[in-house]
Amino acid sequence: MERGETAVRAEIALRVNGEERRVVADTRTSLLDLLRERLGLTGSKKGCDHGQCGACTVLVDGRRVNACLALAVAHQGADVVTVEGLADGDEPHPLQRAFVENDAFQCGYCTPGQLCSAVGVLAEAARGWPSHVTADLAADGVELDEAEIRERMSGNICRCGAYPGIVAAIREAAGGGTAR
Fold first, then answer.
1. Domain 9-84, what architecture?
2. CATH 3.10.20.30 in the chain, residues?
3. Which tens digit of pLDDT belongs to each residue from 75-109?
4. pTM (2 d.p.)
5. What DSSP letter does each residue of 55-68 carry, written as one string?
6. The CA-based dihedral angle spanning residues 111, 93, 100, 49, taken in that order and rounded to the nearest 10 degrees
7. In angstroms, what CA-CA distances link 156 with 49, 56, 83, 152?
8. Exposed, middle or buried: residue 90 (CB in 10 Å: 0-12, 13-18, 19+)?
9. CATH assignment of 94-179?
């Protein structure tokens, strides 16, 4: 901004983890910064701040989004789910349980984004949406084999290399294979 100019602010209304939230923020604020700095939801991480690592992945209207690239004001009225909103009260989401049971994390920094992305993967597969490696586009469902999961999760980087556990956890949560 040029010297003397003032920031443009707007009221942003979102439904975050099932709760209506209203915040007045600079229109340049990313969804990630709004969630972390204004709403105190620090589960989603700022890894690269360029949409390349997936640590900031959240669900917006049921779809995976890199929150560091999304302007909060552009998601007026959206339904946002962060890692804090995956559990059902004290009951962990099936993917959260599967991540623990399959040692799908090491340092844990990428885990919130991995979990939100994995929830999106299961939903996409359940809708029958193909990926680049989907073998049979005419099938009734998408088989979530290792190649399919790795392709769909390729936007989420784990610097510790916990990929075998992540893939196993997603397969377990998907019921071992085909999502229909």
1. Roll (3.10)
2. 9-84
3. 999 999 999 999 999 999 999 999 999 999 999 99
4. 0.92
5. TTEEEETTEEEETT
6. 0
7. 13, 9, 14, 9
8. exposed
9. 1.10.150.120
